[in-house]
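Input record, target 12 of the design panel.
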């Protein structure tokens, strides 16, 4: 074998070694998907049990390090709290649904790596239920029935304030809380609802009666104004035929309501003749036939 052949074999072997090394190093670089957390454990640094990475990637050293993933997919946990004692010592049922997930804040991600790594989803949900049940009972015990049922926003804020710090201890955070119908054994909440409905109906009836009264007062004042103006009218018969007809209709309508005397006639209104109907006994209404000259 010549020296040239040996040199060529050496070059090929070296090149193959370089390529193999690059492939191996590339295989040890792990990228982290956006819906997961890359947890690198082993010898990662002083005072650290694991290195959590969200986004990007990390090189995993062989023999001294390894890696795994934690899913960021939210978990929906139904909670059916029964017979929880409120501040008024009334037991209520609070059916609810909690949505939780792994927190991506660096310090809380470390808690998740320490306490949730290697657990199945059902095991994590069971752990969350124990935390939520305890804190939900604590929240209900600090509020009255009215605060729980009528001010839902404050109730949800109180739940979040009590539950979320406990979830952070195991690397989770509270995404959403949905409270459905709250009931109680003694029907106290139902009685409150009936009372509120009755008060609303009574208030509406009072408002309607007030408006009807104001409308009647306004109509009466309008009629009085028209009656006070009519005796002062001095019309020109040849030119005010239309106005005469309107006056006839007005008097007829007011006689039906007993707001205008029966004895006064159109001739008196047209010619401003005096009348003393206020001191005479009211007579039945009788239409007066007007002269033909006035109807032209």
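The sequence produced for target 12 reads:
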């Amino acid at each position: 074998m010549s020296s040239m052949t040996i040199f060529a074999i050496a070059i090929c072997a070296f090149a193959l070694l370089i390529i193999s090394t690059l492939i191996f190093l590339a295989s040890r670089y792990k990228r982290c998907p956006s819906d997961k957390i890359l947890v690198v454990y082993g010898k990662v640094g002083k005072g650290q049990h694991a290195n959590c990475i969200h986004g990007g990637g990390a090189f995993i050293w062989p023999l001294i390090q390894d890696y795994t993933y934690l899913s960021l997919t939210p978990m929906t946990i139904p909670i059916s709290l029964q017979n929880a004692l409120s501040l008024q010592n009334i037991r209520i049922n609070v059916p609810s649904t909690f949505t939780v997930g792994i927190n991506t804040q660096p310090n809380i991600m470390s808690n998740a790596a320490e306490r949730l790594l290697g657990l199945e989803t059902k095991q994590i949900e069971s752990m969350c239920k124990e935390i939520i049940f305890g804190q939900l009972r604590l929240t209900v015990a600090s509020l009255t029935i009215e605060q729980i049922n009528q001010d839902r926003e404050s109730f949800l804020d109180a739940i979040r304030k009590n539950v979320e710090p406990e979830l952070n201890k195991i690397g989770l955070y509270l995404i959403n809380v949905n409270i459905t119908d709250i009931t109680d054994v003694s029907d106290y909440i139902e009685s409150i609802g009936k009372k509120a409905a009755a008060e609303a109906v009574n208030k509406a009836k009072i408002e309607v009666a007030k408006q009807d009264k104001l409308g009647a007062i306004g109509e009466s004042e309008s009629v009085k104004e028209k009656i006070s103006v009519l005796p002062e009218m001095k019309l020109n018969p040849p030119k005010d035929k239309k106005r005469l007809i309107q006056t006839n209709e007005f008097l007829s309508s007011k006689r039906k309501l007993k707001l205008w005397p029966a004895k006064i006639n159109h001739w008196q209104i047209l010619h401003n003749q005096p009348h003393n109907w206020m001191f005479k006994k009211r007579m039945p209404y009788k239409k007066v036939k007007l002269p033909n000259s006035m109807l032209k």
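Confidence is low (pLDDT under 50) at residues 234-239, 254-288.
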